[in-house]
Design goal:
By secondary structure, the chain is mostly helical. Helices cover 54% and strands 0% of the residues.
């Protein structure tokens, strides 16, 4: 085989050549061939619908919470009679009751209270403080 040296051997010329001023307008031609990016159009009514739905959801939530809390049972109205009676016995004295009664209330109480003599005698015999009840 014959030895060859690339630097000394004649070069083969390529059959391809670039046209004159090819690279001067290359960038402009490539940009013309690329698809132009279309600007995205967002209609104003679509943006307002997002705002409107947010406002509607907020109002609905506020109305629902108001309705929920207004329908909760109030602890003051759910007291049973025994609790109220115990409170009144412990914290209200007879003087306070007398101040709030008028003449019609007193007459109604006298008619509704029926005392029999045996019950009065049994009460007086059970309690030793007879001096408070006896007038001389």
């Amino acid at each position: 085989m014959k030895k060859f040296n690339l630097e000394n051997d004649p070069k083969i010329t390529s059959g391809f050549t670039t046209p004159e001023a090819y690279f001067d307008q290359l960038e402009a031609r490539i940009m013309d061939r690329l698809p132009q990016p279309e600007t995205k159009v967002i209609p104003l009514w679509r943006r307002s619908s997002v705002w409107m739905s947010g406002i509607a959801a907020t109002l609905l939530l506020a109305g629902g919470l108001t309705f929920y809390y207004n329908n909760q049972p109030n602890p003051a109205t759910s007291l049973d009679d025994a609790t109220v009676e115990t409170y009144l016995q412990a914290n209200v004295n007879s003087y306070d009751l007398i101040q709030h009664l008028d003449e019609n209330d007193i007459q109604a109480l006298e008619k509704s209270i029926v005392l029999n003599n045996d019950a009065v005698e049994a009460y007086l015999s059970d309690h030793n403080n007879l001096d408070l009840y006896l007038n001389e």
